[in-house]
Write a structure and sequence with these properties.
The complex is a heterotrimer of chains A (about 375), B (about 230) and C (about 280). In chain A, the strands form eight sheets. A four-stranded mixed sheet of chain A has the order 12-3-14-13. Chain A has a three-stranded antiparallel sheet with strand order 15-16-17, covered by helices on one side. Chain A is α+β, with helices and mostly antiparallel strands and about 375 residues long. The longest helix of chain A has 9 residues, at about 40-50. Chain A contains ten helices and 19 strands. Chain A has a single domain (about 1-130, about 140-280), classed as Alpha-Beta Plaits (2-Layer Sandwich). Chain B folds into two domains: about 5-135 and about 175-215, Barwin-like endoglucanases (Beta Barrel); about 140-170, no CATH class. Chain B has helices at about 5, 35-40, 65-70, 100-110, 165, 195, 205-215; strands at about 30, 45-50, 75-80, 150, 155-160, 180-185, 220. Chain B is elongated and about 75 Å long. By secondary structure, chain C is α+β, with helices and mostly antiparallel strands. Chain C has two domains: about 1-145 and about 195-280, Immunoglobulin-like, CATH 2.60.40.1190; about 150-195, no CATH class. Chain C has helices at about 1-10, 140-145, 150-155, 175-185, 185-190; strands spanning about 25-30, 50-55, 55, 70-80, 80-90, 105-110, 130-135, 200-205, 215, 220-225, 230-240, 250-255, 270, 275-280. Chain C is globular and about 65 Å long. The chains are: A alpha+beta (about 375), B alpha+beta (about 230), C alpha+beta (about 280). Chains in contact: A-B, A-C, B-C. At the A-B interface, α1, α2, β5 and α8 of A face α7 and β7 of B.
Amino acid sequence: MALVRNWQLGRDMSYWYPEARPTRQFAAVFDINKCIACQTCTLACKTTWTSGRGQEYMLWNNVESKPYGFYPLAWDVRLLDMLGAQRWEGSRYAGRTLFEAAPAGERVLGWRPDDLDYAHPNVGEDDCFGRIDRGAALSLPHAAWFFYLARICNHCTYPACLASCPRGSIYKRPEDGIVLVDQGRCRGYRECVKACPYKKVFFNPSTGTSEKCIACYPKIEQGEQPQCFVNCIGKIRLAGFVSVPEKARPDNPIDYLVHVRKVALPLFPQFGLEPNVYYIPPVHVPLPYLEQLFGPAVKGAVETYRRAPEDADLAGLLALFGSSQQVMPRWKRLGDTVLGLSEDGRELVRVPLREPVYVRAALDSVRGVVRTNVP
Amino acid sequence: MTDQIAVLFGPFGDIYRRDRRSPWVGEGYVDINPDDARELGIDDGDYVWIDSDPSDRPFRGWQKDRKNAAFSRLLCRARYYPGTPRGVTRMWFNMYGATPGSHEGHTTRPDGLARNPRTGYQAMFRSGSHQSATRGWLKPTWMTDSLVRKGLFGQEIGKGFLPDVHCPTGAPRESIVRITRAEPGGLEGKGRWRPVELGLRPRYESEAMRRYLAGGFIDAGTGKEG
Amino acid sequence: MRKILAALLAAAACGCGSRPAPPLPEVIAFPRAALPDGPKDPAWTPVPAHVASLLLQDLVEPRQLTATTAALAVQAVHDGSRLALRLSWADPTVDDLPGASRFVDACAVQFPTVVTPDLPAPQMGEAGRPVTITAWRASWQASVDGRPDDITALYPRAHPDHYPFAAPSLPAGSAAQQAMERRYAPARALGNVMEGPRMSAVEDLVADGPGTLRTAPQQFSRGEGRRTADGWAVQLVRPLPDGVGPGRRGAVAFAVWEGSHQEAGARKMRTGWIPLAIREGP
């Protein structure tokens, strides 16, 4: 057992292994406000990686509606109930992490899903909290609300899966912090399945080993964003690398959103894993639920995001989402143009701050006909 | 639609089809206001019959044609949907409806898959479809094989049957219906649908779920907000 | 406990009408001209058993804190070069079907790899003092008995539309088809077949401390497990351990996993070291 620093908690905490941060940490920002739950990401991952025997039920990437959706069933509400109510004191977490709350004989507070908990992966789709009565109208925040939460493995800095494996079959790559299950070493004990709070390790009953999201590491190694990122219709995702707060660079897109503007937040930071997928929270959802998911910085994040139309830098960076197959470790805005850059400053892509709008005349004067809106 | 998309279509998907009654890995369902459902004695996840004016639906003369009535009466899952006002239910219109062949598969295969044994057509309903409750409008002046018309794609001019011309156009949208409980939603017809039993569904929330909805597992020290 | 012991003795005796022999204080391997064919072979009936009380594995995390299987009956015979063990225990549920959250019944026997005055730590040995383990799994047995390598064997109503390696463009059994199949089963591509098609229901392993378990370079054991009236009986056959021949003494330990209690790895019931005597005989 060691004492490690978890910047998301604003304090040190216990972890099974000593602090050993990778050279670069793979990270992502997902803008929840743009997700339409088309599930293209889910299918992109599935057709790439989990189309084998025993993998049929696995959704390394999934999109669930909140608050009534879960995959597997009850994954978050059950763990929150086990952990009990906890609290923050400002930006410092005053509660217990899953490691600190581990019961006797265990390294992590966790639970095993039942086989049946993997059924109904899209339960709760579009189910709103609250009622829609005749004549209902909505203001912000919505009285009747739901949103879509797209989830992959968070490639945590302090993975519960890694800590829980008695054989050390899970490792975190030193070059990019991607967390992987060694398929040659795993013997299918499924301590990782029990320990991961996000339930993003899955047992393959056909091979007898456990499998998980690999952050499309062969693509990352070639400077390309993962499958679920580049196939996203809504362009809600951006892949990159996150730094610890004191090393944050404003010209690093992830650092800018997470550390500089504080508009992208980790999912369930209170569990203590320092997850590395960061979410821009949905602006229409009441704060208590959001604080339970993302911590106390949610209020500021929502306010910042709502001012984005007047914030050229923030709006500009958001325009880079979904603009390139390549990972963009750097970025900058030049007036009304936003550039995605390589590590050494080469231009990878450029996008306009605002999409140009062209209005075509209804009358085609050459042919003397009125254009109608049919294909 | 492949199975991996179908399993995400609505809340009832199960890629391993652990409930034998399920026509496929995903299935048809009706969105119903929870209070309406409660008054009708229907639990979330139950199978329900949806019937419309019996004078001509699911088809004229169905009372005397048992065989075809069997495959065409609408049987689907009920889904508690808080997002609809009282009195208004809704159903997707693009799910693969039941056919005589799919119904044969569903009732004769040991695994209960609603798949036509000869053509492989896969239905998302055990029987019926939303069309069981609606009327189609045909265009009688075009119902001839000698009609000259443009092809579906491109610019070819031809004659004879073409789906976009000879089939009912548009999807008939609305109907007054009666919804009655058919079978319990629990696995193999016993008890309630599992997410209901786990206290995760609207109107069935467990204490933990209610706390979760209110954000009660975290005190962020920000006071009453939102 | 007495009821369980009596039941185990009855199971050990195959209920074949003969009176069960009194239990032994340690594991004794009796000399025989020929080894039994399998756990149901009537030749086992007159062989006395050592009934070991099973302990919680509460030495290393994750720890087993709730006791499940209470006792294990062990019978042993040898033919001068090979040792046959018959392990039997009560288990009302048949757990031989792996699933996303389904665990399977299993048992294992452990010997010190090298005979030394001090025994290795009983929980998987220790650095410098390895142990040799032979493990049997109910799901491996099912595979050997003919369970197909198909998802419908695990989930009977599964009906996947498509696997990339089942595409019509890849002739079945061709190099390209097999490569595609391995691509979607990286564990199998690495030769790590924890579930799936097996030639044997047992595996020989070595370990030198918790978390170090690995497949042994040589596979020298055979094994077969069968259901009994109230549980499992597993016969394991392996060469007599080095240095533990006829007339010699050694040590042996056992472990049992109850699938319905989600036991795997360190979550198990086990014994400490039990003395093992190889009887000399005609």
